[in-house]
Structure to design on (695 residues):
């Protein structure tokens, strides 16, 4: 849905883009060598790196997706906040320091440190590219969703603008500019979200006086979209430049999302509330939520009907309110396994994300790696607590766009002031820039350093690696733009869940084996990476949710066509990766031990070696 | 290039870190198990009228920050 353009938002947006591009152009001089381009010379301070971790990690899924999910369904969005942060404990205590000690530019450096194996390089680079692409799609979709209301341009134009800017950042100054963009973005995001939560608590909760706002059960609003694109609200035409929530505010005095009744029959505003009092009051209130149903008429008109439902606040503060997690409120074991599988993947996936792991190479030593992780955890943790208030604040703001959950946070800001909307939208834009630039860097390193230089011996010298890294960044940037346009209608949080599952399945077993088990062999690493990657990817692509949302089958038919019992693969494919690592390593070592060595011959499986690696 | 034959000490996780990690795993795993199999427990009000789901969820985030801070005090990462 096209939203009205705010001139101030445009000014802030353009200023931010200009500042980012100038910064990248200036820093480009310090990224001529591979060390500068891929790892910022390893000279980033731990505090800057820690905040940059937050800038890298707090993606469009975190900001737009989680806030939107909480605003639409309550607690379920917060489950993602919990899982995303928990993953950093694995990163801190298990992989941070060893990865820093063993690697140089890419995730594959650490994985391949003991073996010098082309197979490991190819497997690690492939998984890096697959995970990065799955992570890139929701970022680019989020980019289009953000720029659309900000500049009044269509989704595809927003994706191209963001993609073009990020590609410029990465190709000019690589990890140097990426780090500073992420640092600025991480800092701004947390500061402005704190301000926004302060405003939410200051405003408290209130009951609008009109029928829609009160959410009298059964109140309906119908949005029809004719084949020629004409939109109608309850049968009356809606101007092309007007959004649904604005129309509702004009007709009824409020938009979607409001308090239906306050505790003890109170009718007036509560006034400012403390953080705990806000949650307590919310839980004892009734909130107007809107149940959505879709249908298609004979002439092809798509009709969406929103029906007001007064939902108890305490119900919204429990898991299981969203379509994703509703199974845990039902007595369905398979749905519960799906929930556990996703939470396991979020826990184990963070420490396996290539674009996060490469940030350990931008600090001077292992001590700095740990300190920057701690700063990252504090920054990210604070932000995730804020998401609960942002989501619940949006849910009761009367400013929701019922057709686009990703816009909940920016529209919440607009319910306070257009200036705040402009600022939050611009910061959300930097959110996309920061994360996408990290992903492009991870992908560029995988192509230039792992595949071309180390696996195929094409770009072996320093300058060639930088040159190919830039070419790869441009290629990945273009691919991301195309995917961002194709996947416009996808829920961004859902796709990031896939990326975590695939990363945890493909990367974590191998990484843990290489770091902590002497019995690991290179065949075991390659097998575990490939089995984890292929099995998790196949699982995701053959699940009912994918068949319905990506392939476009009706839900009932998708459930019948699905090859796997639940959507999230981690519960099966992560252990499968570990089992593969163990079995193949044991088998190859047993074979190597049994095979008599000829004098002077090397035993590749039993003896780690260094061979043709390119530094 | 980092040394691929780095001493085992470079790869090993300190026992203290493992203990902190285990504490968090228990807290996180417990929350997941209760959410999946005893959802009614999470509905109980515990702190100032806030239910266990919110308190445990926010508590997990706070615990991560506390453990991260603890990891800097006396941990391997604190040594130069």
């Amino acid at each position: 849905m096209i939203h009205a353009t705010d001139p101030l938002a445009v000014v802030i947006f353009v200023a931010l883009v200009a500042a980012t591009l100038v910064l990248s152009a200036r820093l480009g001089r310090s990224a001529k060598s591979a060390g500068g381009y891929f790892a910022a010379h390893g000279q980033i301070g731990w505090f800057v790196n820690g905040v940059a971790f937050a800038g890298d990690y707090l993606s469009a899924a975190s900001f737009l997706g989680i806030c939107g999910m909480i605003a639409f369904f309550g607690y379920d969005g917060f489950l993602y906040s919990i899982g995303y942060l928990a993953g950093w404990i694995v990163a801190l205590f298990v992989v941070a320091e060893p990865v820093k000690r063993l690697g140089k530019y890419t995730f594959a450096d650490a994985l391949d440190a003991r073996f010098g194996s082309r197979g490991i390089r190819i497997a690690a680079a492939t998984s890096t590219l697959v995970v990065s692409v799955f992570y890139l799609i929701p970022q680019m979709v989020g980019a289009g969703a953000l720029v659309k209301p900000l500049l009044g341009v269509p989704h595809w134009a927003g994706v191209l603008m963001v993609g073009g800017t990020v590609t410029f950042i990465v190709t000019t100054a690589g990890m140097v500019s990426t780090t500073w963009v992420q640092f600025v973005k991480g800092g701004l995001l947390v500061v402005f979200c704190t301000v926004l939560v302060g405003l939410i608590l200051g405003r408290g909760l209130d009951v609008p006086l009109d029928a829609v706002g009160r959410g009298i059960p059964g109140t309906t609003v119908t949005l029809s979209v004719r084949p020629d694109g004409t939109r109608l609200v309850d049968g009356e035409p809606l101007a092309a430049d007007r959004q649904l929530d604005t129309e509702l505010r004009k007709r009824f005095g409020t938009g979607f999302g409001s308090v239906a009744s306050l505790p003890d029959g109170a009718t007036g505003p509560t006034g400012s509330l403390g953080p705990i009092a806000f949650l307590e009051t919310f839980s004892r209130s009734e909130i107007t939520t809107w149940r959505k149903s879709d249908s298609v008429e004979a002439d092809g008109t798509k009709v969406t009907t929103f029906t007001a439902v007064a939902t108890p606040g305490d119900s919204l503060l429990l898991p299981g309110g969203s379509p994703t997690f509703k199974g845990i409120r039902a007595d369905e074991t398979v749905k519960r396994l799906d929930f556990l599988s996703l939470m396991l993947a979020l826990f184990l996936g963070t420490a396996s994300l290539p674009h996060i792991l490469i940030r350990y190479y931008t600090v001077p030593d292992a001590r700095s790696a740990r300190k920057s992780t701690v700063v990252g955890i504090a920054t990210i943790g604070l932000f995730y607590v804020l998401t609960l208030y942002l989501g619940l604040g949006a849910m009761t703001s009367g400013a929701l766009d019922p057709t686009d959950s990703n816009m909940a946070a920016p529209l919440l800001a607009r319910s306070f002031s257009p200036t705040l909307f402009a600022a939050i939208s611009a910061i959300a834009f930097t959110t996309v820039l920061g994360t996408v630039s990290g992903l492009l860097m991870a992908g560029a390193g995988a192509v230039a350093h792992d595949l071309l230089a180390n696996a195929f011996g094409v770009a072996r010298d320093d300058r060639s690696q930088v040159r190919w890294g830039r070419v790869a960044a441009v290629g990945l940037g273009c691919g991301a733009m195309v995917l961002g346009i194709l996947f416009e209608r996808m829920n961004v949080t859902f796709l990031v869940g896939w990326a975590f599952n695939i990363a945890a399945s493909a990367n974590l077993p191998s990484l843990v084996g290489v770091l902590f088990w002497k019995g690991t062999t290179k065949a075991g690493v390659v097998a575990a990476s490939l089995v984890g990657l292929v099995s998790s990817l196949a699982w995701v692509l053959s699940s009912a949710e994918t068949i319905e949302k990506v392939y476009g089958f009706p839900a009932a038919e998708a459930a019948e066509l699905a090859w796997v019992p639940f959507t999230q693969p981690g519960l099966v494919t992560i252990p499968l990766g570990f089992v593969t690592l163990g079995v193949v390593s044991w088998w190859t070592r047993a074979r190597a031990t049994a095979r008599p060595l000829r004098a002077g011959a090397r035993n590749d499986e039993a003896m780690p070696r260094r061979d043709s690696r390119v530094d | 290039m980092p040394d691929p034959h780095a001493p085992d000490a470079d790869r090993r996780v300190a026992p203290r870190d493992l203990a902190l990690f285990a504490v968090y795993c228990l807290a996180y795993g417990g929350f997941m198990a209760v959410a999946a199999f005893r959802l009614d427990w999470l509905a109980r009000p515990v702190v100032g009228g806030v239910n266990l789901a919110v308190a445990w969820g926010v508590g997990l985030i706070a615990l991560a920050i506390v453990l991260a801070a603890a990891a800097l005090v006396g941990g391997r990462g604190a040594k130069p």
